[in-house]
Amino acid sequence: MAKLSDETRAKLRRRSRLVNLGRDTEHSQGFVNVPPFRGSTVLYPDVATLKSRAQRYTYGTHGTPTTDALSSAWSDLAGGAGTVLLPSGLAAIVVALMASLSVGDHLLITDSAYSPTRAFADKMLKRMGIETTYYDPCVGGGIKALMRPNTKAVLTESPGSLTLEIQDVPAIAEVAHAHGACVIMDNTWATPLFFSAHAHGVDLAVEAGTKYLSGHADLLLGLVSANETWFERLHRTVDLMAIPPGPEDVFLALRGLRSMDLRLREAERQGLALARWLGERPEVLRVIHPALPDHPGYGLWKRDFTGSSGLFSIVLKPVSEAAVAAFLDSLELFGLGYSWGGYESLAVPFDCATYRTATRFAPGGPTVRFSVGLEDIEDLKADLDRGFERLRAAADQQASSFETPALRAPQDEG
Ligand SMILES: Cc1ncc(COP(=O)(O)O)c(C=O)c1O
Question: Would the CB of 251 count as within 6 Å of ligand 1?
Fold first, then answer.
């Protein structure tokens, strides 16, 4: 088999790139996959090379053929100048912030951000003398009013992974760049397959590889790709911190990469089918899915994204917490769990009213987020049907227990 030429590689369509990127048979003795290189020590052939460090691999924390395979593949996919790998998605967010901020700087974070991102800003960055302001995810170019002379980074997450607001990233990037600030985006929902972050003005694009890149809920991984302007600084930051992911996790992520397009397209198809079905349910007040025309961000999604993943939320008509719990507890195919993007379907209740500070999220009923997996859609509907039955029964029971004291009261008094 001839080696893939640069000319052929440059012409490959996305699915072919996913199959071929990062597969360096030179490092794998002809085997199809690059193996998980484990190691701390790297040997040098002589003192001169040791002193100059003039060889690609120098120490376990500074990269291996396995990490190179994934980071080069990801850079190609993301359209970035380079990618660094971290042991979790949150670590990737942290590194992007550490690469772009210094003592005395000001940071803008979307109010819809993943809540551990907020916790890092509120607890750690604050201690380091970095002030954070949260902004309305739908602010667009209006972010200009929030920029200060010391604003050095604007963090976006589009859509927000619970409430799914779509942000006008190009408008935000234009303002941020005019002020000399770095634009960071958590692009985990769309992945580079459905949103080209760097082409839309993002400097540092974060992916929790734990989700769709893994696709199997069996690893934790973070990736940050950077454009030309930011890669050097990002790389230097990570090198100083020395926090590489485990080799097996990177190996598994490379395996996930090969089928990511197929899995994501199926998640999109199943997610949309289930979202539409849920929209017809009498128990559901509203479906929050950016690829449905009634979503407030649908226009932006259509303009900027090339697909949607299998993660979306619903608002139930007002019922008690106990009824929501009865619904979720009775589900047999949908697991109850926080991480998402795996082959198995999940549901979690959420309430972000307690921690949002720039905007009020008042959906009008209890909210549940779904991550739709690869099960047969009819089985998923049947599972939810069963759940809704329990929800109605719990709601009816509660309604009758509310009525009981009122009905009993005259007798009691009598
Ligand atoms: C949007 C988003 N970003 C980042 C992360 C963090 O990923 P990890 O679990 O790998 O730290 C998550 C995890 O749920 C997430 O939902």
Answer: no
